[in-house]
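discrete fold record:
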Amino acid sequence: MTKSNTTQCSIATTGGLQVYDAKKEQDGGDEKKQLKKVKELKILDGKTSQNLSIFLGSFRLPYEEIKYAVLQVNEKILTESMVQNLVKQLPTPDQMSVLGEMKDEYDDLAESEQFGVVMSSVKRLMPRLEAILFKLQFEEQLNNIKPDVVSVTAACEEMRKSETFSKLLQITLLVGNYMNAGSRNGTAFGFSISYLCKLRDTKSADLKQTLLHFLADVCQERYPDVMSFPDELIHVEKAARVSAETIQKNLELMGRQIKTLKKDLETFPPPQNDKDLFVEKMSSFVSNAQEQYEMLDLMHKNMEKQYNDLGGYFVFDPRKMSAEEFFGDLNTFKNMFQQAVKENQKRKEAEEKIKRAKLAREKAEKEREEKLKKNQLLDINAEGDETGIMDGLLEALQSGAAFRRKRGPRQADSIVSLSQLVLETCSPTTDELVMQ
């Protein structure tokens, strides 16, 4: 073997060793990567870890940034949706406590458990998240309750003040007593509001109209001012969709949440670092929330009083008939009444159309008869003017119309001329005398 060959073999051998070592190193790197991908969960179960990983992947924020956002109550980062999911997906307090003791094993933990290690350093994490969520939802809660309270209160006031609606009830009672005359219901002093929705059930003999159509017709013809009653009850439709029970429950929930938050803040530990602004921000919020809650609670109590007074005014038990039922019946009647007015208008238009068509037919028939009569007269006159003249003269002589004027010199001449004309016209010719 030459020197060059020896060197080549050495290089080849060396190269072979280098390749072997590189392959071994590469295999070892792959094994580490594989181990990193399939890190076994040490604390969390598979489902909790998966849900938490999905949550973290949807926001793509560093764990430390989420932690400081909670400490600072940073609403630019902490949206309602994010906090809701965080409260739902966060490991249990016991799991969080165990994860907090595993900081030294951070690199060996799965991502979901690493997140738990970071967040475990926040003291009273769950109460903080629940308080922040309440703060984020508070405005929405107000906007869900306040308009409903206002609608019911306004509807109660409108019903008591509406003169047109009161007059409509009087007319309805009068019509009902007239129809029930002679029976025990013929002298009623009032009726339930729910009865208004049953006016459509009473129908005429031909089944074409109802008592509601009749009532709407009477009001439109004799009491036109009553027709504007829907304009005086503009909040009734909204009040019909309000559940007083739901308002009560939501208001009680808001009160409990404020009370709980106030109590937590009184016993909350001091800020754990300079970035911990929880107590400062939440104290300001709870003070403002308490004021708005107290104001809303007063509005709600006024609403209940207004509805109770309305029960006394219309003689019904507010405890047995909810505001939703009462205003629901009233709103249904209002819509039915307006529909009846439209149907009456269509019926009258149809009747008027039929009437006009009938008059047009009668007029055309009359014109046709007159034209036919005129044509017959023209045909008769065309046959011989003498017969027409004789008929006219005979009629004038029989009625004496030819002798009613005073005779003057000219009139006498006219009569003589007329007599001569008659004689000449009526006298037979020589041929006629011969034939006779």
